[in-house]
Every structure is written in structure tokens, then in C-alpha cells.
Amino acid sequence: MTPHVVKAGETIDSIAQKYQLVAETLISVNSQLSSGSITPGQTILIPPFNGRFVTVPAGATWRDLAAAYGLRADILFEINGCTEKPGRAFIPGISWGNRPSPAVDNYTGLAQWPIQSPAQIGLDYGWQNQGAGEDAFFHSGVDLLAPLDTPVMAAAAGEVILVSQEGAYGFLVVIDHGNGRQTRYAHLSRFAVGPGEKVPAGKVIGYVGSTGRPDIAPSHLHFEVRVQSPVGWAAQDPKLHLPRQ
Fold first, then answer.
1. 120-240: what fold?
2. Which of 40, 50, 72, 182 is spaced 20 to 30 A from 139 at the CA atom?
3. pTM for the whole thing?
4. 136 burial level (CB within 10 Å; 0-12, 13-18, 19+)
5. Mean pLDDT of the chain
6. How far apart are CA 90 and CA 49, in angstroms?
7. How do the pLDDT tens digits run along the chain, 245 residues long?
8. What CATH architecture does domain 2-92 belong to?
């Protein structure tokens, strides 16, 4: 939060515009503005992006808030100062009820699974518990079991925006599907597409491998669905977008 000292002639709307925010964000963060008035010399707090504070129900966890607002629990945890038991939380990117509704999004899900169905999940999306004494970790996709060199297909039509070796992902292909959605295909053995290529659903883009640092030993494709949010490309459960097997 950045402090801002109100100058003569400034309004809630003008300050919000200065910081590329909506006025409702400022009012939510600064309860003293709830009357709609502002006074020169008053100090208010400016958040880095739009959002609002919410009261956290007793006993609720960051995972509960993530499920309620569609954001990753670890992102909410970090944004709110890594507090273990929140009583009040800042939730970025909430749609404001008194503003015009966005255009209808006709997204109906991905066209197909990225490997031949039926696909067995070796490691699911979400928080994963490890052995005794080890910390849980967040798995941002699904690991689909498949033999090495199994063809990997585009789950929907789009544009290939990355074909590269990327740390723990190993050989990685990223496809942009428009409307703020991407799919990621990791641990490939080799590529079958290049950057900038437009691909239809079902196009072979690479082959199952073991590059990078896979989370499980059996050969598999690590597959992610990411949606653009105010805090970056947030991972969503791919099973929500994939057709039933």
C-alpha cells in the first residue's frame, strides 16, 4: 500500500484515475471514504491493483478464499502479508456490482484432452501433501500418465507463443487461446511446432518426455490451464475445462 496525501481539488475519482484504479477500490481500502467525500491533507492508502477487503469467516483458510474467489491460495497468502489465520483479506480483481457488466464470454471449455483419452491422472491439480515432516506444495496442473514419445496434442485452437526449455518445466510449449487463456505442456522430449504457429485443436505439438524436474517418477505430460488475472497468469484446475472422458 502506498500512502497518498490528498491535495486541494482532488476527488476520489481523480485519485483513482491517477493510479489506474476504480473508485470503489479506494473506498474499500479506506473506510473513511465511504461517505463519498474527501478532505485536503487527508492520507489514504493506495493498493497496487483493483480489489477490495473482505471479512474472512471464522475458521476459513486461504484455500477456502481461493475456492470462493477463483484465485490461487498461495497468491492470496503472499498478497496479504503471509498471515496464517486471516481475519480480513484483500481480494484482487473483484467485479464491482455497480459497474457495467463485461461482454458475455462464450468460452465453453477446451476441445479435447492433450493426450489420447482416456487419460489417467498421476498427480492432480491443487495442494499436495508429502511425507511426514515435509511441507505441502501446490501443483499447478495435472500430470497425465503416458509412455515416453506419446504424441501431445493442442487441447484447443490457438497460437503457439513459447517453445523453449524452462527450468523445472523442461521442454515447454505454451499456447494462447485468446480471451486471457493459455495452456501449457511440459516435460516434453521434443517439439513439433514453432513460436508464432497457429494450431487447430488436435494438432501434435510435441511428445511426452522427462525433461525438467517432474514431480512424479512415471512418464507423463504436465498440463496446465492458466487464466489472466490482476496478479498474473493464475493456474486453474484443467479438469474444469476439459471434456468428460
1. Glucose Permease (Domain IIA) (2.70.70)
2. 50
3. 0.61
4. exposed
5. 85
6. 10
7. 789 999 999 999 999 889 888 888 888 888 888 888 888 999 999 988 888 778 887 778 888 787 777 777 888 887 777 777 778 888 887 544 344 433 434 445 799 999 987 889 999 988 776 655 566 677 889 999 999 999 999 999 999 999 999 989 999 999 999 988 999 999 999 999 999 999 999 999 999 999 999 999 999 999 999 887 665 677 888 988 888 87
8. Roll (3.10)
pLDDT tens, position by position, 183-212: 999 999 999 999 999 999 999 999 999 999
Structural domain spans, the chain: 2-92, 120-240
Scanning the structure block, which residue is given the C-alpha cell 517432474? 214
Length of the chain: 245
Query: At which residue does the C-alpha cell 498440463 appear?
Result: 223
